[in-house]
């Protein structure tokens, strides 16, 4: 089922497609985060990414519960947007030798992921609310709040924990 295809006939179909999109995205993020953690050198960045890896596992569990509430098996649909963000992050990280600059790039790349997720979760919440899926709204809102908090923590690491300052001095 692709966006703007005949497979999507109703708002309910659109919600399910959106859940499949973010489910796939979270799966890809689970695969990408360990590499980011391994490459990061700033201890606050490593700790934040490690914590978010654990959160992402819980987010996937909540998405699985959302699918169950809809009577659907959890499944993903390929998401070119998250694939592109992760591909760009990997390419950028592969081009940077200085560890301080690499940490700054990792923060930026992680924030690109967070912003994508915040966008998707916000839309899914609006659709689930419109369709009266209150329990799904709660699951998605918890995920959205965690994504917002992760983004705020990344800002803190970049600005107050010295990642950007060290990178600019490199």
* Radius of gyration of CA atoms, rounded to a whole number: 17 Å
CATH topology: Ferritin
What is the number of domains?
1
First-last Cα distance? 47 Å
Q: Which percent range describes the beta-strand content? A: under 5%
In the CATH hierarchy, what is the architecture at level 2? Answer: Up-down Bundle
- CATH class wording: Mainly Alpha
- State the helix count: 6
**CATH homologous superfamily caption:** Ferritin, core subunit, four-helix bundle
Q: Uncertain runs with pLDDT below 50, 5 residues or more?
A: none
Q: Helix/strand-derived class? A: mainly alpha
How do the SSEs run, as a string of H and E?
Answer: HHHHHH
Helix content: over 70%
Average pLDDT, rounded to a whole number, is 93
Largest sheet: none
Silhouette:
elongated
Number of strands: 0
What does this structure look like?
The protein has 170 residues and is mainly alpha-helical. The protein has one domain: Ferritin. The chain contains 6 helices and no strands. α1 packs antiparallel against α2 and α3 packs antiparallel against α4.
